[in-house]
Amino acid sequence: MGSCLCVDKNQDPPVVSAGPAGTQPDPAPPPSNPPSRRHTVNGHTSHGERHRHGSGSRWSREPKEKDIDKLVLETLSLIRTLVDNDQEPPLAMVILHKVADCDAGWLNVVKSLIRVIPLEDPLGPAVIALLLDECPLPTKEALMELRGHLNLSQIDSSRNYHKPCQQRNICVVLGCLAEKMAGPSSISLMSSDVLHFLFSHLNPINHPVVILHSIIALEKFAQTSENKVTVSQLLQRMPVHPLEVLQDWSRDPNYSKREVGFCARWCLDNLCKCMPSEKLLTAFILQGRQFTYEQLDLSRLNVMLNSNDVSEYLKISADGLEARCDASSFESVRCTFQVDTGVWYYEVLIITDGVMQIGWATKESKFLNHDGCGIGDDEFSMAYDGCRQLIWYQAQSESHTHPCWKPGDVLGLLLDVDNQKLVFYLNGDPLPPYRQLFNHARSGFFAAASFMSFQQCEFNFGAKPFKFPPPICFRTFNLHGRLTDEERIILPRQKKLDLLMQVTVKEDSCTLCFDLQANTRLMDCKHAGFCDECALQLEKCPICRQEIRQRILISDAMETSSSEAGSKGGSPKRLS
């Protein structure tokens, strides 16, 4: 659960000199008529209200470089404390948003993000993504000026930004901008210097974190077709495919290298492009290379993360046990096995130490990734957050006594359905039982998790020995679950798209599930196109957002000849 960050775009912030990091500047008196506020959750901007900034500044003086640096570090230090949707954002964040409202200010904020975000803070890359997402969209001129300032030729980049933390931050900034501005702006940003910088940092001699974010930046640039072609052509000219070398790090004991290996292998499996000529042009994929799932023996796995019950941007490994989020949204997933009675236990290996909410959820728990809502943010799920040291239930949090988790820690999760309690363990150390989840749910529980940007972990459902089994009798998912050979396969994206293109959809199919016939009309808005099963799950019309007061079951005959139905005394069947 990310906090609700409210930024008023129409109110000028006070002109202040930032104090030491971690202290709030004195705010200006509130206006007599407070303007309406724009709400974002988990730092994700409402896209309909973004705007491009101009060249004029609203500040009465130009903020100094050191002031902006202090504001950035203050935001980084306070961001983990934003856990309540009713909290105001840090004043430092509001001021940075206003500083970035002109080209010069935006450039100064980006330079500061590159310059001062430290390597060791687990939320550093996520805060860069958050602040860039909160700032107004840059103009094309601002992007070109940033590219010129970075001057990422081999000599100048090493001279200006030689520290691994700064090189990592450059990659994060480039990736975030490529993701936000896919299309012509992304094409113009990906100059030969930028490409050379990213490719040169794929060399295994570089710091693993720099390699990782170089891969992610290239992946996000490749979301634009022209960029994907350019990346493909460069890779084809290289004597050794760099990702083929890096994918072998996926089981390295160094957890930063393990992240690199995961991303390299995922890119090799998933990123390719079909050209209009119907000729397949590979970007990250090696010609003749087997997909990872074809190389693995998955027969021992009876429970996995469910690739059909996951939000759209989460990356899942080919064995279905490892998950990662590199998007600027809060991605969630459930496992394939449901438990209804008894005592159950699973473990999670923490690979990154940022914000993840890991726990239990029923099918009724909603994945609202762009709203920042995931596991623990409704009455049908409960989650452990080891970064902010919180337990989440119904979008409310309470502190726990475990220390902050770190890479290599093992989170244990015990569910006792019969006695209605949950127990969370960190490296075998238990917290007191929690019972709130059973206020609204009695059965139908799944292992589940939500991930903030740049976070990753591995699940153990019992296919291998547990590191810290609890000293009580319990069941394991893998012993009682069942999967067919087909269900064990997590298809790469291109293969999934190929299968979807072969699916034929009837003209009268439901516009939501595409499986059943569209036979229901929503009242009072009278929008149709939904089946009765989907309509019963809706609270508001997905077309006009009007609250649904009634659902009417209709038929072709009733639709085409309502007057005839009326003359016979017939009427549509009321569902609700």
From TrEMBL:
Annotated Gene Ontology cellular component terms: cytoplasm
InterPro entries: ARM-type_fold, B30.2/SPRY, B30.2/SPRY_sf, ConA-like_dom_sf, RNF123/RKP/RSPRY1, SPRY_dom, SPRY_RSPRY1, Znf_RING
Endpoints of the signal sequence: none
Assigned keywords, A-Z: Metal-binding, Zinc, Zinc-finger
Protein name, entry field: RING finger and SPRY domain-containing protein 1
Location of the B30.2/SPRY domain: 283-466
One function term, GO molecular function aspect: zinc ion binding
Pfam families registered for this protein in UniProt: SPRY (PF00622), zf-C3HC4_3 (PF13920)
